[in-house]
């Protein structure tokens, strides 16, 4: 089964969708962790997007469990820009 990172998938979406349409399954990863799976539609549902077309992995706990909800998160000045640059590989 093939896999693609989020950026790779975004930059080549048409190519990956053609592969899925041809019957291939694609694992979508974010920083090496599987976050979704693209699968071709089932025969009885061709023409309509099946609920199984995009599935999130089953985890033992919600990935954001314990995160502060509705609270302001303070970062040192410049942190967000640095993190974005690192994520883009521009650091």
Structure description:
The chain has 91 residues and is an alpha+beta fold. It has one domain. It is 27% helix and 19% strand. It is built from three helices and four strands. It has helices spanning 6-11, 13-21, 79-88; strands spanning 2-5, 26-30, 33-38, 54-55. It has a four-stranded mixed beta sheet with strand order 1-2-3-4. The longest helix is centred in the last third of the chain and has 10 residues, at 79-88. It is flat. The mean pLDDT is 80.
Number of discrete domains:
1
Strand order of the largest sheet: 1-2-3-4
Low-confidence stretches: none
Number of helices: 3
Overall number of strands: 4
The level of helicity is 25-40%
Strand content: 15-25%
Q: What is the succession of H and E elements?
A: EHHEEEH
Span between termini: 32 Å
Shape: flat
Tell me about the biggest sheet? 4 strands, mixed
Supply Rg.
17 Å
Q: What is the average of the pLDDT values?
A: 80
Give me the secondary-structure category. alpha+beta
What are its keywords?
4 strands, four-stranded mixed sheet, 19% strand, 27% helix, single chain, 3 helices
Helix and strand arrangement:
Layout: E1 2-5, H1 6-11, H2 13-21, E2 26-30, E3 33-38, E4 54-55, H3 79-88
Parallel strand pairs: 1-2
Antiparallel strand pairs: 2-3, 3-4
